[in-house]
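As the next step, I selected for study a record pairing a protein sequence with its backbone structure tokens, which the following lines show:
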Amino acid sequence: MDSFTSQLLAVVIFGFLVVALPAFLNRFADSRSQPR
């Protein structure tokens, strides 16, 4: 794997974590604070 591909993969993974982690934490906090 060349450096451009690995760099692009790292950027994609980082972007996914930045988007998914707050959403997951918000869902987890909502489910804890407001049990249905």
